[in-house]
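Hey, quick one: can you model this chain's 3D structure?
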Amino acid sequence: MLRLIIRNNWSAVDDEGVFWLPLDHSFEIPEQNEPDWTRINTPWFERSIYDKNSNGIHDSIESSEIPVGMGISYGVELTSTHLTELEQLGIEIVDVLESIDSVLIGIQEASLAPTLAGMDDVVMIHHYGTVVFYGDIQTPNVKARNSSIYPDAAWNFGVTGKGVNIAMVDTGVDNEHPGLVGKFVAGYDAVCYLHTDPTCVAAGLGARETDGSYDPDDGNQHGTACIGMSSATGIDADGSQSEFYGSAPGSSLVDVRIGTDAGAGPFENYILEQEFYESAMNGIQWIIDNKDTAWAGVDESLHGIDIISLSWGITSHEGGGSDGTDMHSMILDAAMEEGVVVSVAAGNDGPNNDGLSGMGSSDLSITVGATDDGNTVSRDDDTIASYSSRGPRRDNGDGNPLNELKPEITAPGTNIIHGRGMCDFRWLQ
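Sure thing. Here's the predicted structure for all 429 residues.
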């Protein structure tokens, strides 16, 4: 039996019949029976939907007539020997993803894939995905902030996000916005570390720092808007207090830039699509590597990284969604296993999508769909937003039917008030 003891002030039955355990009250939770489904213990690469002919090569690479972005996954711990073997083939390694024993090797001729797949310990040749950004009512609607309809909200119990570091992985954050002042504790620019753009040139060598000391700005405003929804304090440019809080106004920011001023790679003339993908993967690996880092100049309570927030996704190169065996879903699983909670957007493909795209299909991440709150605090008129991607995720063949049940949760995503930076500090809808 599991004995649960709660020691705090949560002692109420709310209007939806949810019972909050009284102070120092214990409640015995019966042990649960093992599920009656049969676990399938074959490794992921033997049941991936991306390799239907089981030759260790992403099917879309085999059908490609043009060079493609490639990643390589190994079935054992990645070593310097593996890297040397690639270099001996004349392949320049773009990035090493230790957490999933994989490497990114950039654009390669599709005809090279069989050679790579035949190398020792290689289990999958992946095709890069394509990164796509998704982008005063919502906080009381989710019962973060008190309201006349829901008086016992999270803030009332001291749950404001204080002491929690959120890694906003996006286009950077303009933390000079009055509602975000004092939030920054650390930052990293994956675009500048791996590649370059005008922002990197202007920033100089400091933009390549990996110790968390660099503070990326946001020339696009997607990242600023997203962190505002989670962390903004609601302070206006004139110093007055507005009603536009984030859900966790006490939380702090780790600013990880993976997108450029134009927001995405394919239509820009200074960063290519494959470089955008590489920056995204590198940024997440940096978070895993720094999950416990003692950031310079901040209190010990703000060391490390607690949450990864992803308001974007990565699409695949074939019809239908992902089963979670792509590199970008697996690196999110690795982050969760390291104790960093990942919140990822389900996507904006609407009700007719065939499963969920990569990242939103991660086994362990919390995938978040969008609701339309009807511009009211009451939940009675809430609906799933017309644009929000639906589940379930495609079956990964592991015998567990529960990890296909995504999204796990929904939250308001329509008519949201968010912060705007770039010296024009406002709240926009």
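One thing worth noting: The chain is about 15% helix and 20% strand.
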